[in-house]
Amino acid sequence: MGESGTDPILASKWDIPFVVFGVVRVAFGNLPLWAKAIVFGLVGALAVWTGITWLRERRRSGGLGRGDRTG
User: Which of 37, 14, 38, 36 lies closest to 25 in space, CA to CA?
Assistant: First the structure.
């Protein structure tokens, strides 16, 4: 029996960022500047909100609370 050619291909760590950058460039390449600013502003605001919420939950659960260091 011959090889079927279905061996897995190992991807480098830069494959996913390269593809994401390419998709974003193609998706937003023809938009006017004001539309790009709105989209990236909303994505940035979502990232900041997610970060703040994550930090609040982590502090509430005792992960980063004050006084939990020993020494």
Answer: 36
Single pTM value for the model: 0.55
Residues 58, 65: Cα–Cα separation, whole Å: 8
State the Cα–Cα distance between residues 64 and 57, nearest whole angstrom.
Answer: 10
Q: What is the pLDDT of residues 7-49, one digit of tens each?
A: 667 678 778 888 889 998 888 889 999 998 999 999 999 999 9
Dump the DSSP string for 33-60.
Answer: HHHHHHHHHHHHHHHHHHHHHHHHHHHH
Contact by Cβ (8 Å): 58, 64: yes
